[in-house]
Amino acid sequence: MKIRLGVVAFSSLAILLTACSSTPPPEPVPVVPPAFPTDSQVRELQARVAELTDRLDVVNARMQMLEAGAPAPRVVEAAQPAATRTAVPVSTPTAARSDSVRGANIADEYRRALTLYGQNRVEDARKVFLQILEADPSGELADNALYWLGETHFVKNDFAAAMGYYRRIVSEYPQQNKAPDAMLKIGLAYAKLGDLSLARTTFQQLVERYPYSTPASSAKIELKRIKY
């Protein structure tokens, strides 16, 4: 009886092993490679990030002025001689539509210039920023255009030319959102040129004038890093 049970158990084990060996192995799970963004998507994201950064700078500047009790910033008007100054025409629906269309076109060109800059087409971007500044020298994007004009020179290590644009922002648009960024880049340009004393002075002035701005935080880091 024991022999028969052993034979049955051995036969069952043999059948089980045969079934396992004949079962095909599971198919490997296909590995799906990660999807990387295309160049056009990257450029679009770069333009959007720059635009969002500009908007954040505007919010920070307004918060700073509200906490300081200062009036809201106004658009700087281009100075004109008294003899050539004319009365402001009464706004009409047609004129309002024309202004809005021009503003939309300038905004579109500004985004296009940012995209060109993101593509490292610096010379092309500079031309568009210059056109924006010439089309509306006292508009809401004038200080932004000046800033990016400075950037087109800064990225080429032409720090003297870059500072010319940055200084215009600080002097002509001190209450606009790009003024703190311009001061930071002036300080960095001085540091690149080896004038650490003026770099520190510029960073200190930035912290004093725009203490709540993001560039002021960067200036504090630079002050700790730069040695006389």
What would a concise description of this structure say?
The chain has helices spanning 2-22, 39-68, 93-118, 122-135, 142-154, 159-172, 179-192, 196-209, 214-225. It has 228 residues and is mainly α.
Task: Explain what the structure shows.
- Residues about 70-100 have low confidence and may be disordered.
- This protein has about 230 residues and is mostly helical.
- α4 packs antiparallel against α5 and α8 runs antiparallel to α9.
- The chain contains nine helices and no strands.
- The protein has helices at about 1-20, 40-70, 95-120, 120-135, 140-155, 160-170, 180-190, 195-210, 215-225.
- Helix content is about 70%, strand content about 0%.
Contiguous helical run count: 9
Mean pLDDT: 74
Helix amount: 55-70%
| Oligomerization | single chain
Query: What is the chain-wise order of helices and strands?
Result: HHHHHHHHH
Sequence stretches where pLDDT stays below 50 over 5 or more residues: 70-98
Strand content: under 5%
Helix/strand class: mainly alpha
Shape: globular
**How many angstroms separate the termini?**
101 Å
Q: How would you characterize the largest beta sheet? A: none
Quantity of strands, as a count: 0
**Gyration radius, to the nearest Å?**
32 Å
